[in-house]
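Annotators were shown the component list below and the corresponding predicted structure, then asked to write short factual statements about the assembly.
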Amino acid sequence: MTELKSYTLAILASLWVVVVAGLAILQPSALDVSTVTTILQFSTILGLVSLGQGVVILCGGAGIDLSVGGIASLTSVVAMQAAEAGMPLPLLPVICIVVGAGLGTFNGLLVTRLGLLPLIATLGTFYVYSGAAVATTGGAVLSGVPSYFIVWGRGVVSGLPLPFLTLTLPLFLLTAILLRFTAWGRWIYALGFNERSARLVGIPVDRVRLIAYGASGAFAGSAALVGLAWLGSARPNIGQNLELTSLTAALLGGIGIMGGRGGVIGILAAVLLLVTLQTGLLQLNVNSIWQVGIIGALLIIVLLADNLRFIRRST
Amino acid sequence: MLKTSKLLLLSVALLAATASFATAADAKKKVAFVPQLIGIPYFDAMKAGGTEAATKFGVEFIYTGPVDANPVDQLQIVQNLVNQGVDAVSVSVLDASSIAPVVEAAKAKHVTLFTSDSDAPKSGRAVYVAQATDEGLGFMIIDEMVKRVGPDAKIGIVSGEATASNLNAWIGFMQARVKDKYPKLKLLAPQFAGGTAQRAAQLATDIMAANPDLKGIIGVASSTCPGVAQAIETAGKIGKVIGTGYCSPNTARAYLKSGAFAYTVLWDPAELGYLTVWAGKQLIDGKPFEATATPEGMSHPVTYDAKTGILLLGEPAVFTAQNVDNYHF
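Structure shown to annotators:
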């Protein structure tokens, strides 16, 4: 398992080097601290959401969370509405995470208690959550985020954005440690790898899975918090497109779609690669229609490389 | 390891392929325009106008925007243009609040950031190049509708993205006009179709079914016009329900001729693109805008309001079956 993980990381790292080198040759002026800041800024929200997506997929049972974008949108709107209704502003981070975790747990209940297929359950809640976010606001943006959050959201320390440094990076490291060194982490791999035997040895499969969906919601909620602090307002469509981009990042990062395989550091590497690639292409003024195609091609190539290895091994 | 090197080769090839699309840097001043969405006729026309102005005024014109109307993607594109040090960056803002984080970054880099087509009023932008006032557009479409259906009628509205600030402003002025001048006119709550004509057709059909006494439907976003018109045609309500919208003659030509649309209200986006690049050049050169001026290459004067910082293209135009063939955009 470790061998596979390092293999994915090696591919991603070398691709990243290629992208940066290409950019250095074609547009030397792009190699600036401000580019690093930009890349990390746009990686922060995607990173948080992809982390949750990755954990859900790891748990197996055809796990997938298509509602992450909807959770981020609805959470930011609900948090600001609560603030307008008189909730003390310093509680914004708490309510973001609580609401996100709640919405995620609802997904988990649909999947574990009602036995809905995750694809269908979270597709449904994706529409419900993102629809509710637009409906309750009429599409309008809610402002009024206190300035001390904006100082954090837009803050940069020696080129590194504060939300990335203080939220995304620590959460990735924490999740990596939990997955690797705790019983819960081993359970997740075990039930993702073989659910039947995991049940037979007494792993609380449904509970682990429920918590994974809740965690994914909480990560999306923290992404909503970053959006609030960064943009200075709650936008009912802050999570637009995050469901598919986060899925791309998780798969590109080496998470096996069937579960039980991969690690979260790979996801972080994939997020950084994706955003660096986008930024590089934008710096070169490449038409953004090409960018979408290139990212798709990248996903297929990396997964194909992975697959070929399996085919060769099994024959 | 063999695989890794193959992959490396592949990605090098990919990069090389993309590099051929990149433009070489030169000494010309650069003006960029970031639309809300690329690949639709409206912004293509703005691009054409901008390119024409760039040739005329000797600047390099960069046109780049998101593939779907996503504010965060747009922000990322603007941020990168600022990082590149493009001299003037104009944006058709998708979401007024989302542009705020780059305004400071632009100032620090001495990049002039201004808005065009859709505004972010309190963002600190240098100027807003406006196609027509939101008020003029909102009032005009209602006035023209009343001319055709009378002041006592029920009108439906199908808009695009629920978060687009320009569309919401127009709807706001439609509602204000009805309240002030035509109290008997019943304007239904706007329905939002997102970016697709198909969804707009479905919404328009539903509105007609739910309101048998409906007299007119307004398609607010240019992407909703074909949907609204098709819905009127398929429902066999040509003449019974008056269709209209803010869309170009090319988009509406067939529907104006079939009678599904009685008129459309818009401006010339190519002229707007031209004016945008002209304004960018003025800003780079540090020339102030005059209250009334006729930019070189334009047929009519434009006005500038120093208090609001709005450079106005002119009055909106009304297109009908009679005059539509005089326009080709």
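Statements collected:
1. Chain A touches chain B through 57 residues (CB under 8 Å).
2. Residues 44-243+256-264 of chain A form one domain.
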